[in-house]
Amino acid sequence: MALHQGYNLVTEPVADTESEMASLEFFRRLAADEEVSTPTTVTGLEDLLYNADEDERGAILSTLRQTLRSSRSLGSMDAVQFVIDGQFVDDVEFRVRVEGSDGGVYLDIGQLFVEEPKPLTSTHVVARK
């Protein structure tokens, strides 16, 4: 399966990409409007959110969403592959369940995007840019 334009959230990589970086580096580059070669693979988004204080996750997601929206580093035709170590849950809103030391935790990763991610398969969803 190939990557689609926009943000591809996958639990297993679906394509080999030109570059790979950690989520913190990816968002740092976007915030600085630095060049990001695409397609690119981004790892560790679930770790970034999981390791944040639970009461700060909403604010972090809001900041990251604004970074995605305002950055000029990515064009409308670009593809980004977020490899997530977790399980997609699409009930009331799109979330990711990750296993932590204290059991399963649900992360509201769907809040990163303008529209809720659309499932292609049980392991691949796409959000628009």
UniProtKB/TrEMBL annotation:
It comes from Halorubrum laminariae. This is DUF8076 domain-containing protein. Pfam families: DUF8076. InterPro entries: DUF8076. Residues 3-128 form the DUF8076 domain.
